[in-house]
Amino acid sequence: MSQLGQLAEQIRGCTLCRLSKGRTLAVPGEGPENARIMFVGEGPGFHEDQQGRPFVGAAGQFLQQLLASINLTRQDVYITNVVKCRPPNNRDPQPDELSTCRPYLDQQIALIQPQMIVTLGRFSMQLAFTGVSISQVHGIPKKVGDIVYLPIFHPAAALHQVRFKAAIEQDILKIRGFWPSYRVLSQLSHRMTKSAHNSSACSNLGGRVSKGKLRIIPLGGLGEIGRNMMVVEYDDSLIVVDAGLMFPNNDMLGIDIVIPDLTYILQRAERLQAVLITHVMRTM
Ligand code: URA
For the domain with range 3-177, which CATH number is right: 3.40.640.10, 3.40.470.10, 3.50.50.60, 3.40.50.620? Predict the structure, then answer.
């Protein structure tokens, strides 16, 4: 069992604070062990306590919609909470409960090594922000060490008040902006598409691109590496982009096919014009 799995087992058996007495199931969290983005909520509610899984109730459904708005699914991100057991009647977690549970979250962060942590609500926001209210800082990222923290309102708030819903929907879009490669890819695609209609734009790409069809092809392959790589193909030119995207959906803007290995590049190596490495990946 992985270290993260062992930690989850430890959490399921934890009796360190009073919340363990009232729980049905502890909720360690779930998602890929090498997720680039972690979402950290407050604590399990009724449904989470019953199922032992985070964000499976109404707030979870909204979270899923938010993820879909940036082409992500639950399976792309790690989702957890600051306290792993349900506070009675969904009351706020108390300071001693937060501090007793905190080492579990710290260990999860250390093992997953996410690039970004999206904090949901005012409790998890305290991972990176102190002395400010969530109304002041929501949607404003802050880098602490190697991790970008993005505080947003809790999805449950949106279920009660429309103005929170609009703010959350706006704030979540910022996740895309922090992936420099996401921008590079969309700019490239925009330029190449324009070049099909405007020959002077072709010279921007070294004059090698003729009018033709632009294809964006995400490649799979060797674990993390394959999960991030894209081929941008325009007629006879291939550009490999280490895109820094989660494995995109087939129906994402402009995607023609998703190929689950690297043969596409290997078979067309002579057409390769450039390799853009847009971010540093951590080794597996
Ligand atoms: N609210 C949270 O903060 N966490 C959950 O897991 C569910 C609802």
Answer: 3.40.470.10
- Please give the angle made by the CA atoms of 172, 33 and 16, to the nearest 5 degrees: 95
Q: Give tens-digit pLDDT for 153-196.
A: 999 999 989 999 999 999 998 887 655 444 445 455 555 555 54
Query: 9 forms bridges with which residues in the sheet?
Result: none
As a whole number of angstroms, the distance between CA 20 and CA 17 comes to: 6
Give the domain ranges of the chain: 3-177, 182-282
Q: Which residues pair with 218 in a beta bridge?
A: 230
Rounded Cα–Cα distance for residues 268 and 212 (Å): 17
Query: Residue 212 C-alpha to ligand 1 middle, in angstroms?
Result: 48
pTM for this entry = 0.68
Contact between residue 197 and residue 94 where contact means Cβ atoms under 8 Å apart = no
Q: For the segment 75-117, what is each residue's pLDDT rounded down to a tens digit?
A: 889 999 999 999 999 999 999 999 999 999 999 999 999 888 9
Closest by CA to 46, choosing from 89, 12, 17, is: 89
Chain center to CA of 165: 19
Question: What residues are in contact with ligand 1 under a 6 Å CB criterion?
Answer: 41-45, 48, 54-55, 57, 59, 81, 156
